[in-house]
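queue> pop job 88
queue> type: inverse folding (structure -> sequence)
queue> payload:
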């Protein structure tokens, strides 16, 4: 886990020098931690560290997923990070998130498509369950309670 949300590669990097997507990832990391997830880099992945872990830049057969979510060592979902400028167009990226959720994950055996898809800017998040025959993405903002999401 990073020592601080603004530390990168062992040196101090002010938040203002981050790209919009890097800033989104810092915010997403904080949101995941606040929700009880342990956020890990793929090179330091420890699936036994906690019941729920989020692994950054996890390898799939179609490229790196921004985050893959594991519960009790089983992959259950993906989070696609987007810069804040994509907040109004967030649903445009649903196919990308679904592609990662359906991809073959590296270092897993017998895994099928992951049910949960999230797209987040760190300010706005949309999510859906692919097992639902008629999934309707649910959007929430950073100010929305974690107990319930506001549907649009």
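queue> result:
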């Amino acid at each position: 886990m990073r020592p601080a949300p603004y530390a990168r590669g062992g040196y101090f990097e002010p938040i203002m020098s981050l790209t919009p997507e890097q800033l989104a990832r810092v915010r997403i990391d904080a949101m995941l931690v606040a929700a009880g997830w342990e956020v890990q880099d793929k090179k330091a992945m420890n699936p036994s560290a906690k019941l729920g872990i989020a692994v950054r830049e996890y390898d799939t057969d179609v490229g790196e997923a921004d985050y893959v979510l594991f519960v009790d060592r089983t992959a259950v979902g993906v989070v696609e990070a987007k810069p804040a400028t994509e907040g109004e167009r967030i649903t445009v990226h649903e196919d990308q998130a679904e592609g990662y959720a359906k991809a073959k994950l590296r270092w897993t055996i017998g895994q099928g498509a992951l049910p949960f898809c999230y797209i987040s800017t760190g300010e706005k998040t949309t999510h859906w369950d692919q097992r639902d025959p008629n999934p309707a993405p649910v959007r929430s903002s950073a100010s929305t309670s974690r107990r319930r999401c506001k549907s649009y």
